[in-house]
Amino acid sequence: MHAPPSLPRSEGPVAVTRGSALGSSDEPLATAYDAALLDLDGVVYVGPHLVPGAAGALDLARRAGLRLAFVTNNAARSADAVAAHLCDLGVPATAADVATAAQAAARILRERLPAGAPVLVVGGPGLVAAVRDAGFAVVAAADPRPAAVVQGYTDTTTYAELAEAALAIRAGALWVASNRDATMPSPRGQVPGNGAMVAALAVATGREPVVAGKPELALHQESMARVGASRALVVGDRLDTDIAGAARAGCDSLLVLTGVTDVDLLLAAPPGMRPTYLAADLGGLLRAHPTATVDSDGTARCGAWTATVDGATATARCVDAGAGEENDDGLDGLRATAAARWARADAS
């Protein structure tokens, strides 16, 4: 990843042009926005390991004036624990920089329940702490009847815990889920996420939870409050949570290809799950982003590349080798292909 040592801050409003479903910016994103709301797993790190180049990119983005909020649908760890993990990986952070789905779930409980109400928690220490800090009594059983069940990811959830939660939900307790991520990235590949266990309770109870995390707005509101952002960029690796959440909140988004979303998922993205910008990794914060346009005949163009779609086949070609090489991050062909594919899908 190549980046300039410093980036000039924008002095006025930034124009984001949209020649297709993708947007473009003629200046680096780190100066075009006042804050970045960064997903963590699959973006900054994967499990215990830092994504290569992430620490350096975030350091340069901060030097350019970009405020960072670290936003996670994972409710297992407290904000303090998440910040400590980031620091261990070489990314400076404090608990005040972190917004978790556990905190967003606690926000929903405060809006709907009286202080001190009993809440059955199925989840890790971060979720337990958030519920307690919000002024509720944490319980572990369906008797006596709790006012709510709040559920978040932990790799130690047992059948007995799910059974107690099911009994409480069927008896009428408010059910709040930290998120519905079906999977989560790990160094070995995709593994079941909180959404898989939420689905088990949904089948057992015939109920659906109130969801706190992305793509719902509670976690987004928590994140915006953390950094006091007026023009925030959502950065993530998942279309169904990060990018869809940004769209619901009316924010621009940057999709990075270091986590869940691969090329096939990107090209098949429906409206509402299409990112504003595309980058290989967090180095995309330090770059301007080119325009991808679609001609009347369906040909898409981005930089030196064109792309066309014929039935199920998309073809990208470099039509001017060497043109704009100094600004090419290797993704202009993919940007053109995405623009062509999405335009064809929308037209049909």
Structure in words:
- The chain has 348 residues and is of the alpha/beta class.
- It folds into three domains: 1-73 and 214-288, 3-Layer(aba) Sandwich (Rossmann fold), CATH 3.40.50.1000; 101-211, Rossmann fold; 290-348, no CATH class.
- The protein contains eleven helices and 21 strands.
- The protein has helices spanning 29-32, 54-63, 79-88, 101-112, 125-133, 159-170, 194-205, 217-227, 239-249, 263-267, 332-347, and strands at residues 16-17, 24-25, 35-39, 45-46, 49-50, 67-72, 98-100, 118-122, 137-139, 148-151, 174-177, 183-186, 189-192, 210-211, 232-236, 252-256, 277-279, 293-294, 300-302, 305-310, 313-318.
- A six-stranded parallel sheet has the order 7-6-3-15-16-17, sandwiched between helices. Strands 9-8-10-11-14 form a five-stranded parallel sheet, with helices on both faces.
- Helix 6 (159-170) packs across helix 7 (194-205).
- The longest helix has 16 residues, at 332-347.
- The radius of gyration is 21 Å and the shape is globular.
